[in-house]
Design brief:
Alpha-Beta Plaits, 3 helices, four-stranded antiparallel sheet, 34% helix
Length: 80
């Protein structure tokens, strides 16, 4: 299933490391702080175990969404 990871991380270095980690994990950047990719249930479970190490501040947040193919087909991109 498609997995969407969005985050709000206050520290620039941590945010950059998280972005590189998500790319290395096989996710594709779709926004500055959003990555999307097809992960197996085990890969998603592994990801959820590793993500907390990037939370360094009370204001930091990482959200992980699982999106089925049917719902993903409803996705629309609006650009200039």
């Amino acid at each position: 299933m498609q997995t969407l990871v969005v985050y709000d991380i206050s520290d620039d270095n941590v945010r950059n490391r998280l972005a590189e980690f998500l790319k290395d994990f096989g996710l594709e950047r779709i926004q500055k702080s959003a990555f999307l990719g097809n992960l197996s249930p085990q890969e998603r479970k592994d990801l959820l175990v590793l993500l907390p190490k990037f939370i360094k501040d009370r204001e930091d947040r990482i959200d992980v969404f699982v999106i089925c193919e049917r719902d993903l087909k409803l996705h629309k991109t609006i650009k200039f």
